[in-house]
Design goal:
The complex is a heterodimer of chains A (112) and B (114). Chain A is mainly β. Helices cover 0% and strands 55% of the residues of chain A. Chain A is built from no helices and eleven strands. The N and C termini of chain A lie far apart (41 Å). The mean pLDDT of chain A is 94. Chain B is mainly β and 114 residues long. Classes of the chains: A mainly beta (112), B mainly beta (114). Chains A and B meet through strand 5 and strand 9 of A and strand 5 and strand 10 of B.
């Protein structure tokens, strides 16, 4: 069955450093991948979409890569700030059902 | 512009009682989703509507869950009867189109079944 893995442990980094979050998947060939941010008590908020034929996508301090050979996406936040602290979810889409399948999320904590 | 509105935000009920959640999507969004999110997990799709039609309800436990989207706008998700294992956050989302379209989520309803 389809499986999406994100870092189960929280990622703690120092303010100003680059945070790198990983999303690995198996038994799936997604047509696209999305990243969402979720704060406690709130719904997820869309950040970026990357298609299977794209290697990299950038938006301000965010960068996403998509390697369909490795079946992996990396999500980078450069010059991280305490306000970036949240849970980040990757979600894969496409296929016969054309629905999003979410990973479990990674909790990022940026220390001042 | 208002985002996706959900009510109630919190609900505590005894097992075997019925419960209903309401969602008002962003104006103009034709696709509406209901997700279930357990603690420490990502959202899991329960049902997706395109306008008034339920196009994907394969993960909806139809023995106790039901949903409707009258007139292709607001939607209601109902559980009857509720079980202890139904305790979770129920998220509603909407989008213009489906597939790779960006989804806008509401704040969710946190359900506790005692």
């Amino acid at each position: 069955s389809q499986k999406i893995e994100q870092n189960s442990e929280a990622l703690n980094i120092q303010e100003g450093k680059t945070a790198t979050l990983t999303c690995n998947y198996t038994n799936y060939s997604p047509a696209y991948l999305q990243w969402y941010r979720q704060d406690p008590g709130r719904g997820p908020v869309f950040l970026l979409l990357i298609r299977e034929n794209e290697k990299e996508k950038r938006k301000e301090r965010l960068k996403v890569t998509f390697d369909t050979t490795l079946k992996q996406s990396l999500f980078h936040i450069t010059a991280s700030q305490p306000a970036d602290s949240a849970t980040y979810l990757c979600a894969l889409g496409g296929g016969a059902t054309n629905k999003l399948i979410f990973g479990t999320g990674t909790l990022l904590a940026v220390q001042p | 512009e208002a985002g996706v509105v959900q009510s109630p935000r919190y609900k505590i009920i005894e097992k075997k009682q019925p419960v209903a959640f309401w969602c008002n999507p962003i104006s103009g969004h034709n696709t509406l989703y209901w997700y279930l999110q357990n603690l420490g997990q990502g959202p899991e799709l329960l049902i997706r509507y395109e306008n008034e039609e339920a196009v994907d309800d394969s993960q909806l436990p139809k023995d106790r869950f039901s949903a409707e989207r009258l007139k292709g706008v607001d939607s209601t998700l109902k559980i009857q009867p509720a079980e202890l294992g139904d305790s979770a956050v129920y998220l509603c989302a909407s989008s213009w189109g489906s597939g790779r379209a960006e989804q806008f989520f509401g704040p969710g309803t946190r359900l506790t079944v005692l």
